[in-house]
């Protein structure tokens, strides 16, 4: 079995939605902890300042309840832009791998005793919803099953809520289920419940969206179906979808709207706390899980951060810089990644099958920037 040589279109680089095209540079886990510690300190300070205000309502790390009314923002249908795991894959024309057939995944499922992970992988690679349903019935307490069930496109609101609660229970240290739950509450107009979820998510350090695990098990499914090692790795790495990124992007926008509602109600302390939470969400996406995080995940994280800074006074201080300087840094990183990909695009057609395998291995093991750097070093001007 062979895969069609992928073709890249540099003009697709801009991706129309500039809000999600931002530069990502690797941040160490130490830097992430420092940023989160700063966030916790700011929220603690804001909560303390709240004590001097009227004692009406409940406080969720710096946010006053009841929250002011606001109009929830729904997830955009243009979220398909976020479906690929890396920026280069977003630019691929053709080259889509057809879904695996029932016959192709039969052996894989049997060898893995129809485990939760194998059922989910078979569902993703075959697009057969019956396999997800089987996983939901057999393994309701598995966090990855709950994750897939929450993001199922045809899930009704009650079903989605049921699986959000299951996800929270299955992954109590992971802030992602609380974030997803908050977005669902925003969409349904239940702002106070959304604020409670945001409070629960704040400070948790175990953010996980299972991207690496999903790629690994999908690769196993493709190999069992007869794909070569290179083909299986490419199909799994480039084929996995990331619908949670569109959700997180939309959540950030709702949180900025929440901050605006607090500000309009005269509660500047809660407004500032909400914006700090948006920045914290963006930083978790930008720096979670080390170098193997897909660039598109980091890009969404930085886009979320930018929405918060855009809502602040550009001349005000933030950390050791100003808000405007933070925005300038984001813009610089965006342009840098654009330039990097533009430089690498002309060499894609020169790559051999072995090169593609090496490229994908570097992407998964060390990150896309490393893989692009390797490509430029091999094919670029000497």
Question: What key attributes describe this structure?
Answer:
disordered N terminus; 382 residues; single chain; mainly alpha; 61% helix
* β-sheet strand percentage: under 5%
The number of distinct β-strands equals 6
Average per-residue pLDDT, rounded, comes to: 80
Structural class, please? mainly alpha
The poorly predicted ranges are: 1-32, 43-57, 78-94
**Helix content percent band:** 55-70%
Tell me the Rg in angstroms.
22 Å
How would you describe the oligomerization state of the chains in this entry? single chain
The shape is flat
Reading the helices and strands in chain order gives EHEEHEHHHHHHHHHHHHEEHHH
CA-to-CA gap between the ends? 35 Å
Strand order of the largest sheet: 1-4
* Tally of discrete structural domains: 1
| Tally of helical segments | 17
Biggest β-sheet strands, sense, barrel: 2 strands, antiparallel
Quick recap:
With 382 residues, this protein is mostly helical. It has 17 helices and 6 strands. The protein has one domain (35-63, 82-310, 350-379).
Description:
This protein is mostly helical and 382 residues long. The chain has one domain (35-63, 82-310, 350-379). Helix content is 61%, strand content 4%. It has 17 helices and six strands. The strands form three sheets. A two-stranded antiparallel ribbon has the order 1-4. Strands 2-3 form a two-stranded antiparallel ribbon. The two termini are 35 Å apart.
């Amino acid at each position: 079995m062979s895969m069609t040589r992928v073709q890249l279109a540099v003009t697709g680089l801009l991706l129309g939605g500039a809000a999600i095209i931002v530069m990502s540079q690797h941040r160490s886990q130490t830097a992430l902890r420092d940023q989160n510690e700063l966030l916790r300190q700011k929220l603690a300070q804001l909560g303390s300042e709240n004590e001097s205000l009227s004692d009406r309502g409940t406080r969720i790390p710096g946010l006053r309840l009841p929250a002011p009314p606001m109009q929830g923002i729904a997830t955009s249908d243009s979220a398909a832009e976020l479906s690929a795991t890396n920026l280069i894959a977003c630019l691929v024309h053709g080259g889509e791998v057809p879904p695996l057939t029932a016959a192709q995944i039969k052996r894989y499922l049997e060898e893995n005793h129809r485990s939760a992970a194998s059922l989910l992988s078979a569902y993703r690679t075959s697009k057969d919803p019956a396999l997800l349903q089987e996983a939901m019935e057999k393994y309701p307490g598995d966090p990855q099953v709950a994750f897939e069930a929450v993001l199922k496109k045809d899930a009704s609101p009650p079903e989605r809520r049921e699986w959000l609660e299951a996800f929270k229970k299955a992954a109590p240290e992971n802030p992602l289920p609380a974030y997803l739950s908050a977005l669902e509450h925003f969409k349904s107009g239940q702002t106070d419940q959304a604020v409670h979820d945001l409070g629960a998510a704040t400070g948790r350090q175990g953010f996980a969206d299972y991207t690496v695990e999903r790629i690994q098990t999908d690769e196993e499914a493709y190999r069992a179906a007869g794909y070569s090692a290179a083909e299986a790795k490419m199909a799994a790495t480039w084929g996995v979808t990331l619908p949670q990124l569109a959700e997180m992007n939309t959540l950030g926008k709702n949180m900025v709207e929440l901050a605006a509602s607090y500000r309009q109600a005269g509660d500047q302390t809660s407004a500032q706390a909400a914006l700090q939470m948006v920045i914290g969400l963006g930083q978790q996406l930008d720096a979670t899980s080390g170098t193997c995080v897909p660039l598109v995940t980091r890009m969404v994280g930085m886009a979320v951060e930018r929405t918060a800074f855009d809502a602040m006074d550009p001349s005000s201080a933030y950390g050791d810089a100003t808000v405007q300087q933070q925005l300038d840094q984001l813009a610089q990183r965006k342009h840098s990644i654009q330039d990097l990909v533009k430089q690498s695009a002309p060499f894609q057609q020169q790559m051999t099958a072995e090169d593609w395998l090496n490229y994908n291995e570097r992407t998964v093991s060390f990150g896309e920037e490393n893989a692009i750097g390797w490509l430029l070093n091999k094919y670029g001007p000497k």
